[in-house]
Each structure stands twice: as C-alpha cells, then as structure tokens.
Amino acid sequence: xxxxxxxxxxxxxxxxxxxxxxxxxxxxxxxxxxxxxxxxxxxxxxxxxxxxxxxxxxxxxxxxxxxxxxxxxxxxxxxxxxxxxxxxxxxxxxxxxxxxxxxxxxxxxxxxxxxxxxxxxxxxxxxxxxxxxxxxxxxxxxxxxxxxxxxxxxxxxxxxxxxxxxxxxxxxxxxxxxxxxxxxxxxx
Length: 188
Prior knowledge:
Number of strands: 10
Helix content: 10-25%
Shape: rod-shaped
Number of helices: 2
Radius of gyration: 36 Å
Strand content: 35-45%
Oligomer: single chain
Structural class: mainly beta
C-alpha cells in the first residue's frame, strides 16, 4: 500500500524558500554614483602693485629740460600673481594714461600733462598689451589654465605734444583682467 504524505502549506513554503536561498550564494552589488563640479574661474592672489616713477621730466638747462624722460617709464615693471583653472581663460590689458591729477585743465601750448605708454602683461608665457593713447582695452589673449606671476611692463612712453611737463602729481593705471570664458552650461 502506498501512503500519501500530505504536508502542511507552511512546510512546503519553507522548503521552497530554502531552495531559493541556496541559489543566491553569489554576492550582490549595488552602486552609488558620486557627482560634483568645480566652477571655471580666475583669481588674482596678488591683485595690486604700485610703480613709482619718481620725477618724470628731464633735468638740465638745455632744450630738453622739463620734457618727459622716457627712460623713467620705459622698462618700469611690477608683478601681479593669479590663476585660472579653465582651459579657455583669457587675459585683457587696458592702459590708462599717466595724467596730471593736480592740474586738470587743458595745458597751454608747449606744455603736456599726459604721458602715453604701452603696457604689456604676461601670463602663462602669453603677452597681452594695450596702448594708453587709444581708449578701451586691448585684444583679449588666450592664457588657458595657469597659476603664477603676471609681470606688467611699461614701454613706448611719449607725450601728446613733446612739450614741457606741467608740474603736479601724475597717476596712471593698468588694468589686467583674467576671464574664465565659461560657455553655455558651465562647461568648456
């Protein structure tokens, strides 16, 4: 005689679960993706310096006395420091004339109260320049990703009329602008 074994439903479920657990002996893996970003930017870590040119006019008693001494301006230099962390960064230089700030009227014939010059800044072995005689900044140059010094050198000094320099205090300015040139979407 044959016997039929009837198992309760709980026993059958336990047997099936034990069989499924045995089939999952391989490790299971999950993943967590980590995202972040760094803004494309430029920064001056040493943003300002002063070039003190001293007496701008020639000494003496001859016909050159009192006129601009270009040697006081040409070759004058100071160094800024900065960095850009993007490959499309640019640099722009704007030279503003060295003007008499204590005598602001138009000088009479034969006198000058403005010194024009060219300023050249170098970043990442790339030169950007601008002449103070023309308003506005020079053409932007691509400097890319860099960190380091940015020497600024003055050259080609002259006055508008070659006249005698008007007495007073003179001041000029060279603006060096580093721009990250972020494209749409914040990537390059």
